[in-house]
């Protein structure tokens, strides 16, 4: 346990407590200090050295591996890390005494006049957020990237002066957002994920996702997928202040975006935007949706078609999301370690055009593998399990795949997959599970896989 004493502060200041000292928490603490709050940071776990050094440098008081209740419960307001669940004892006590508990996004949003482009969804949000940022930046806009991705939003609000922000927003963040408003809100899809935080009710999780539209007015935009069943269900029971802009690959839509003869068509202003899906940097059906969503944002902001086409054609995907690693003896190796749920793995398999040796497994969040069965039958010749307990994967696919092998390291998984594949095949790491049984996080899993592939 280490704590750093702040310079003495007058008692007249409002006291802000930040729970969780990761990227978002430390950024929020810095912004709060800049705005004259008395700040205290508390993390129930250990604080990474990088963040500890920053807090010390800024003379912000903090504690780790404990919560000093007297200090925390004296707060005027609390900024909570998205990872801390409502059932945590300290949160219950704060709720009981009606102390406002908000997210970093809510807090930082108070201190910027920038236009907010906010992207949520169960799958594809990091890719769509990154692509949208890429399109806007290449078009010359003064734009920041934050939320679940990149540097802390609060820290950027304190140190930069962007005109626009593209924010990747998770349901956990949305749960603690109240006054914040998205100028452009994007909801990509709603599929079961994190249900343990929502009483195992999909409608509770969906309600969380729809908070992306709260406080919007007729001057704002809500972009959503008209082919997503849960989104459509949610639309029926709600009214929206914003202008609605749906996208679909199944039907023609005006205004919005749709697919016509393998061309994306976006028609929200006088001048239509069209682009062949063959020219998109991101391939696969799910990426047509992601590209449509980003393209609609760009057209709302009246960006030039040529600039959009160029950006949508040259975008490099984020690390650990369908990332090409190498081709060895004619076998392609793809790192999709960021696929920590079944839907993400479904999207990855759906975009494969060759036979696949699939590396699956890890910490199973109550996965229903049934939705993968058809794609596994069509495309997967062997499954390599990477995790401590692979029984549910064996049970799910033993009738569909001839070979299912257990492995306990990224190196072993890569070597066995290489032997099971032949020229023209793809070895796909898309685990559908969290990584904490064998790895620090999905980045560590992806990095170890890439290192192992390069050693083959």
From TrEMBL:
Residues 320-433 form the Mur ligase C-terminal domain. ATP binds at residues 121-127. One of its GO terms (molecular function) is UDP-N-acetylmuramoylalanine-D-glutamate ligase activity. The keyword Cell wall biogenesis/degradation applies. It catalyses: UDP-N-acetyl-alpha-D-muramoyl-L-alanine + D-glutamate + ATP = UDP-N-acetyl-alpha-D-muramoyl-L-alanyl-D-glutamate + ADP + phosphate + H(+). Cell wall formation. Catalyzes the addition of glutamate to the nucleotide precursor UDP-N-acetylmuramoyl-L-alanine (UMA). PANTHER family: UDP-N-ACETYLMURAMOYLALANINE--D-GLUTAMATE LIGASE. This is UDP-N-acetylmuramoylalanine--D-glutamate ligase. It comes from Mucilaginibacter roseus.
